[in-house]
Structures are given as structure tokens and as C-alpha cells.
Specification:
heterodimer, A: two-stranded antiparallel ribbon, about 75% helix, about 0% strand, B: about 290 residues, mainly alpha, 11 helices
């Protein structure tokens, strides 16, 4: 018996994707270099969130320590740039590979760890990361507490500023990685991942190698986040241990929840939120002394978001769209 | 040999603080199957409350008792108001609420009391009537006080009606409800108790590590490690686990090269190691899951 599934590549999807990419390509010519720079940061975050969404939203494994993989990618790129003077873009595949391996190895114990325990182990990883990066024995490579300064990549095309060029590179990487994620999730493997999320025991009864899938997904997720870390180094031109503390992991979690943890396009909203809202919160709490500091506002926001909109921005968009479809069909 | 004994005794003292945190974590875990990631920050906040009371002129013991009492009430309120809405939500939502709480406590503490390091007075007198080169007066007091607190907690659960009801609510909520136990309030009480025990840990550790908003990060990690080592389904095991972890931490810091700089990494290795090789811990029950 053959089962026919509707083709997931619909004209609406392609049209929406095309419009979004064209719009994103025009943006750097409409705004200042500094705003382009901020958008680049948002996209780098978005790529990291994509990794987290694949892991948590589609495979049901929790990580509250993705800052560690972000750090792995960032430091891999920074060390290759600083000590070996590599080309910027050549460091990306290496950062991806290193992050994948670290994630895969960390995912191995994850096989035995049910949700909560995995969260605990990744929590410990995130808390321990800055201390590891400061460790004396690695200081020659990591630059210890001071960290490393690296140059910004030269513009790829004449006539573009360095910020605009980096924007396009990050956009290309993000679009590519989103497409890869989309294909992965709509494949046989993607369905297996979701089956593991929804009922691990039933999934393994159906012949899915749960252990292999979970570890590999952890590796892929870490790889995405590692690439994001490497890109973030190009943007900020600098790495230091305390930039990769537990609060970065919390940030990634917030971005994921805000955008919609079971979504791919949601990561864009998550990334934008992470770049623009903290500044806004900072301004407010500076202006009014009785308003609690930005992190407290973030925490309150996180809890309220989980109470009222656990599906995030993209989940809301999808719901609105479904409602509109029902309405117009009736 | 003296150094080894000093390390071991100091390890037992700091380990008994980890035991407090581990016990707080295990209490909430037993009742609700959650790890409260905000336990450390709640304890830190309680410690700041005690510090403020001391600053207002309260004797340090009175400040200690008041802070523990306030923490109890705060724990009950947090459970009722913030945790209850996600009681039946997926695990991820609950973890996110705890992370939210962690962030709020951390940043509000920094906002109210600033991020500068503050000295915190010891609860115990400098002169205990005898002198020892092996262990300081604060450390002796810490061990004695935590043992006392643990004995009280044990007696509470073993010999009182409320303690019994709490155990029933944790073990089998549906049946407990049928025999008239208010499971919701038992959970809230559990949160209150956990917050109080955590506060004891925070106030005892503050004179050692100095008071600042991030002081509990390492302590919480070691508390988790202790809880896992002893077994998250066994309160007694968690206490013992905390003590063992405290002693191990000191030994590793002294005898393993680089160990003193990588204390958090050691906690990470312990946590992952226990989870991989003995997921139920030394004294925990192995849970088998069915479809």
C-alpha cells in the first residue's frame, strides 16, 4: 500500500520565502551601516536559535547550555583567525565541524538522560564554560581572561561596506541553513525526530534507532549554534570568556520561546528580539529608576510568554493564518 | 597529614552546605519531579535579606531565623502564584519558568544590593572555648547547625501528621487527594521548606565565599552533583552525596593539577559521570518507564 502525502513545497511557501529573501537583500541599502550590523547580529542569533529549535522543538531534548556550543564555534573561529591567520570564511566549516563533534560527544551521555537530566547536564556545561575558557593551561590559545581580538572580514564585493558585506554573508548562511533544516524536518529522518519527541518508546518500537537519532540531532544542533558563534565573532571582532556565561544560554532560550520553539521562520523574530529589546529595556530602566533592571524584565517576560503564548510569534502567525483559512472557507 | 585532615574537615563543612542545597532540590524533585534551577538564587536572595536585617541592627541569630521564616513564606507564595499555572504544562515550560525565576532573583538582587562583594558575619563566635589547628570555628558551627537542621527535617517528615501528608502527596497525589490531603498546599509547603533549607545553606556559605548575587552558582552546581550522587529519589542519600562532593572538591582542588581553577568543571564531570554510570545515584531507586 502506498500512502500519498501532499507535497510540502507549496506555491505559497515558495512565494513567501522569495519575498522574504528579496526584502532581506534590499534592507542594507535602506538603513545605516550600524543598523545593518545589528541585523547581522540578529541573524547570527537566529542561526543559533535554529539549532535550539531543531533540538528542543522538533526532537524534544532540552538544552539550557547552548551558550557552550556558541562558545565552541566562536573560539574555534577566533583561534584560527588569530593564531593561524586563516581566511574568515574558511573558519566557518571548521567551527561547524568542531561544534558538531563536541555536541555529538556531549550528546552521547544524553542518550541515557531523560529530559530533565539533560537540562541539568547542559546547565552544568553552561555554568562551567567561562571558567574552562579562562583556564591557565589554555591561555596561550584562548587569550585567558582578556580573550582575543580579530579583524573584521574585508568586503567581498567592491562598493559594499564591510558591514553590508558581512550582512549578505550572514544572510546567505542563514538562508542555506534554514533550507537545510526545512528539508531535514520534512524528510523521513525529520518525521523520526518528531516521533521520538512525541513518544520515545513507541518510536523505538517502530524501529527508529532512538539513540543514534538523539545523539546526531544533538550534534547538528550544536553545529548550527557553533556556526552562529563563529559568525558572531566576525561581527563583534572579539571573544572573551564572560561573553559566554549562563546568561547567553538564557538569552538563546528566550529567543527561541519568543520566536516559537517549534518553528523555523520564528528564529528571525527571536534574533531581532534578542538584539533590539535589551537596548529598549535598558533605556526604560535608565529613564525610570523604579523600573527593575533589563534582566528582571526579561525574566518576567519569559514567564509571561510561557503562560500566555507558549507557541511564540510564529506560532501566533500560524494560528492566525489557520483561523483566516477556516473563516474564508466557511 | 595535617593538611589532608584540614582539607577533609573543611570539605565536610562546605559539603554540609551542599547537603542543604541538595536536600532542598530533592524535596522539590520528590514532590513535583522538577529540578528547581532557581534554588540557588532564592537562597542568595534570602541571604541578602538576612544581611539587610543585620544592617538594621538585628542580632545575627535573629536575622538568621527571620530570613529563614521569610524564605518559607516566599517559597509558599512562589509555588502558589508562579509555579502552579504550569503544574500540568510540558517539562520545557516548567524549566523555562525556573530559568525565568533564576534570572529575576539574580538581577533584582544586583539592582537592590549592587554587585559589589559584601562580607557576611558568621553565626558562630570566634572563640568556642577550645582551639584547633585543623578546623575553624565557623566550619565547626556549620557542620553542627546543618546536622541539627537535617535532624529537624527528618523528625518533621517522620513524626508529624503534616510531614506524613506531604510524603503521601509526593508519593501518590491521586490517592492522597482521595483521603483528604490537600495536595496543592502540600506542594506549596514543600516549596516553603525547600526555600528555608536553601536559605540556611546560603547564610552559612556567605561568610566563606562572600556575599554577591552570583555566589550560589557554584554551590547550586555542587548541590545538584551531591543530589545526583546520592540519588534524587533519596533525601538521606542527597545529604550524604553533598558531604562526599564537598570533600572530593577540596581533595581535587589540592591534589589534582589545575583542580583549584576548574572547580565548576569538576562539578560538571561529576554530574555527567553520575548520570552516565549510575543514573539512579548511590541510594536512589531505579525507575522503569512503561508505555
Amino acid at each position: 500500500m502506498t500512502v500519498t502525502r501532499p507535497n510540502p513545497v507549496t506555491p505559497q511557501l515558495l512565494a513567501g520565502f522569495g519575498v522574504a529573501v528579496v526584502f532581506a537583500a534590499i534592507v542594507p541599502h535602506l538603513v545605516s551601516d550600524f543598523t545593518s550590523f545589528q541585523f547581522t547580529q540578529a541573524m547570527a542569533y537566529g542561526i543559533a536559535l535554529l539549532g535550539l529549535n531543531i533540538l528542543t522543538g522538533y526532537n524534544g531534548q532540552f538544552s539550557i547550555g547552548h551558550s557552550a556550543f556558541y562558545a565552541v564555534g566562536a573560539y574555534t573561529a577566533a583561534i584560527l583567525l588569530y593564531h593561524f591567520e586563516w581566511n574568515h570564511y574558511a573558519t566557518l566549516p571548521v567551527a561547524a565541524l568542531v561544534a558538531f563533534v563536541v555536541g555529538f560527544l556531549f550528546g552521547l551521555p544524553a542518550l541515557r538522560l531523560e529530559g530533565l537530566y539533560l537540562a541539568l547536564a547542559t546547565f552544568a556545561f553552561a555554568v562551567a564554560t567561562p571558567q574552562l575558557l579562562k583556564f591557565d593551561a589554555f591561555e596561550h590559545w584562548t587569550g585567558g581572561v582578556q580573550g582575543l581580538f580579530v579583524p573584521k572580514p574585508e568586503p567581498l564585493i567592491e562598493g559594499l561596506s564591510a558591514d553590508q558585506s558581512l550582512y549578505y554573508v550572514t544572510l546567505a548562511v542563514m538562508v542555506l541553513l534554514m533550507a537545510v533544516a526545512w528539508c531535514l524536518l520534512h524528510s523521513r529522518s525529520g518525521r523520526a525526530m518528531m516521533a521520538i519527541r512525541d513518544n520515545p518508546i513507541a518510536a523505538s518500537t517502530m524501529g527508529i534507532n532512538t539513540a543514534l537519532y538523539k545523539t546526531t540531532v544533538f550534534g547538528i544542533s550544536a553545529m548550527y549554534t557553533g556556526i552562529a558563534g563563529a559568525l558572531s565573532v566576525f561581527v563583534t571582532e572579539f571573544v572573551a570568556p564572560d561573553a559566554f556565561n549562563f546568561f547567553l544560554a538564557v538569552n538563546l532560550l528566550i529567543g527561541s520561546v519568543v520566536g516559537g520553539i517549534v518553528s523555523i521562520p520564528g528564529v528571525i523574530f527571536g534574533g531581532l528580539f534578542l538584539v533590539f529589546v535589551p537596548n529598549f529595556a535598558q533605556d526604560i530602566s535608565r529613564a525610570y529608576p523604579f523600573v527593575p533592571p533589563p534582566w528582571a524584565i526579561f525574566g518576567i517576560f519569559l514567564i509571561l510568554a510561557i503562560y500566555f503564548v507558549p507557541f511564540g510569534v510564529w506560532g501566533a502567525v500560524e494560528r492566525a493564518f489557520a483561523w483566516w483559512k477556516r473563516k474564508s472557507a466557511a | 597529614m595535617d593538611l589532608f585532615l584540614q582539607l577533609t574537615l573543611a570539605g565536610l563543612a562546605i559539603g554540609s552546605i551542599y547537603s542543604c542545597v541538595a536536600l532542598a532540590v530533592v524535596m522539590i524533585y520528590q514532590a513535583t519531579d522538577h529540578f528547581n534551577f532557581a534554588q540557588g538564587e532564592m537562597a542568595m536572595f534570602s541571604t541578602y535579606v538576612a544581611w539587610t536585617l543585620v544592617g538594621l541592627g538585628a542580632p545575627v541569630w535573629l536575622a538568621f531565623l527571620l530570613a529563614v521564616g521569610i524564605s518559607f513564606l516566599a517559597g509558599v507564595v512562589i509555588e502558589r502564584v508562579i509555579v502552579k499555572p504550569v503544574e500540568n504544562a510540558p517539562v520545557l515550560n516548567q524549566i523555562i519558568v525556573f530559568i525565568g525565576l533564576l534570572v529575576i532573583f539574580n538581577s533584582v538582587a544586583g539592582w537592590i544590593w549592587e554587585f559589589t562583594i559584601k562580607p557576611f558575619p558568621s553565626l558562630f563566635p570566634e572563640d568556642l572555648g577550645f582551639k584547633s589547628t585543623l578546623i575553624g570555628p565557623h566550619h565547626i558551627g556549620v557542620i553542627a547547625l546543618t546536622l541539627g537542621v537535617l535532624a529537624l527535617v527528618f523528625a518533621f517528615f517522620r513524626f508529624t501528621r503534616v510531614g506524613l501528608a506531604m510524603r503521601a502527596a509526593a508519593a501518590n497525589p491521586d490517592s492522597a487527594r482521595l483521603v483528604g490531603v490537600s495536595v496543592g498546599w502540600m506542594l506549596a509547603l514543600g516549596w516553603g521548606l525547600a526555600a528555608s533549607i536553601g536559605a540556611v545553606g546560603g547564610i552559612l556559605v556567605a561568610p566563606i565565599v562572600f556575599l554577591e548575587p552570583n555566589m550560589m552558582a557554584g554551590v547550586l552546581l555542587y548541590g545538584f552533583a551531591g543530589a545526583l550522587l546520592g540519588g534524587v529519589s533519596s533525601p538521606g542519600g542527597a545529604v550524604l552525596g553533598g558531604l562526599v562532593v564537598g570533600v572530593l572538591e577540596n581533595w581535587v582542588g589540592q591534589y589534582v593539577p589545575g583542580g583549584s581553577e576548574l572547580k565548576l568543571t569538576f562539578a560538571l564531570i561529576l554530574i555527567v559521570g553520575v548520570l552516565v554510570f549510575k543514573p539512579a545515584g548511590l541510594f536512589g531507586r531505579v525507575v522503569v518507564r512503561r508505555v
